[in-house]
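Extended Data, panel c. Modelled sequence:
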Amino acid sequence: MNQEQFINQKIEEIKAIVGSEKAVSALSGGVDSSVCTVLAHRAIKDRLRVIFIDDGLMRENEPQEVSQIFSELGIKVEIIDAKDEFFAALRGKVDPEEKRKAFRDVFYKVFGRQVINSGARYLVQGTIAADVIETKGGVKTQHNILEQIGIDPEKGYGFKVVEPLITLFKHEVRRVAESLGLPERIFQRMPFPGPGLATRVIGEVTPQRVALIRQVTQIVEEETSSLNPFQAFAVLLNDKGTGIEKGMRKFGNIIIIRSVESKDAMTAEPSQVPWEILLRMAKRITVEIPQVVRVAYELTPKPPATIEYI
């Protein structure tokens, strides 16, 4: 793929689709949505409204960091606080597909309001080929694949969806991002799921459980940064384990650490993380987060597992 050719083609396509109308970009800070935002901004300039939905399921300080990065690129980002809506929709749900559906419904309702309020008719989002393939194949429903699950966003939410990257895989999107001049902290960023940390909490998603996995996530990303894995993250299990505190038994949370190597996210192999890093992660997690009493490292490739747990 010729990146420059692709960039010029997509800019012209967005111009043709949106015409003289306005559009809203669904920015999350990941490489896919970042590339879409830059392409759309180049195509329609100030007729693009860039929105970051703060769903309460992001990594530490993510909304502020993403806003700062795009400010440096000359693109203004609006942060919409929708945390209460997302947690209300997820309350009581433990089934993975139910949680994904709840997230999807709130995601598009929030964006629907923003699109209508802005007078826009289009939503630009970073759907890529792997999202479509996994949804069609029944692996798991990606929240941004609407046609496959029988939803017409124009009728249901009041806008049309523009998906410039839908034919590309992750490694191809990274090359486009680099060609667009996006900073390395964007084009080399580890993938992060659309439903955020909700996919890394097994069982019910609550603000307290998300806060815990957010702390663990920061430790895992810090400790594995020198290894530059395709993806490294932590998962909070729904079960409890027995630990010891001051010579007394206590029950606490169990954390799974997962790190994988992949090119296109369709297959993946577990990273060979050095033993000293694994030990340091486990010690930091249990010392800095006393609610956690056990840490394990997962070794399952994809397939048979998926990369994310839900």
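Strands lie at 23-26, 48-54, 77-81, 122-124, 160-162, 231-245, 248-261, 269-270, 292-297. This feature is highlighted in the accompanying rendering.
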